[in-house]
Design brief:
41% helix, four-stranded parallel beta sheet, 16% strand, elongated, 5 helices, alpha/beta, 4 strands
Length: 147
């Protein structure tokens, strides 16, 4: 099964992981991670949860299940709602991502998504497209310009 880089689209099986002490926090983290995966057409093969964020990652039963699923090919990626659910900082998250890649997968944080389009951005893109297609919408500029 092909790996698709984080942010890409495709039917890739992923695991959703959350770690929090309260049921509400776990539910919210899982909802956010599932939404992120769904927006990319990734198939959520399973959701694993641990309840002790202070425990070492390797000793958490949910995380152990995910590493097993990565090793067997059941999942190709891991989606977490926030890096704080698995590590302390961005550098550790990057290092953990390398370990996950060594198992043939990818690790991604469920961010809020792509930035919203700015006012006039769609018009600008349409103009660029029409210009490259030879249909310049500003006829008064196109016909008078000589190169």
């Amino acid at each position: 099964m092909p790996n698709i880089a984080p942010g890409g689209l495709g039917h890739v099986p992923v695991a959703v992981y959350s770690c929090a002490t309260s049921t509400h926090a776990v539910s919210e983290a899982e909802r956010r991670a599932r939404h992120y995966a769904d927006a990319r057409h990734w198939h959520v093969a399973g959701a694993w949860t641990d309840r002790d964020p202070s425990a070492l990652l390797d000793s958490r039963l949910g995380w152990q299940a995910i590493t097993g699923a990565l090793s067997t090919g059941l999942v190709r990626g891991v989606v977490v709602a926030a890096i704080s659910q698995v590590v302390l900082d961005a550098a550790q998250f990057a290092a953990l991502g390398v370990l996950v890649r060594d198992r043939g997968g990818f690790l991604v944080e469920a961010t809020s998504g792509p930035p919203h389009r700015t006012l006039g951005q769609s018009e600008h893109r349409r103009t660029l497209f029409e210009g490259t297609a030879g249909r310049f919408s500003y006829g008064h500029l196109g016909s008078e310009t000589s190169w």
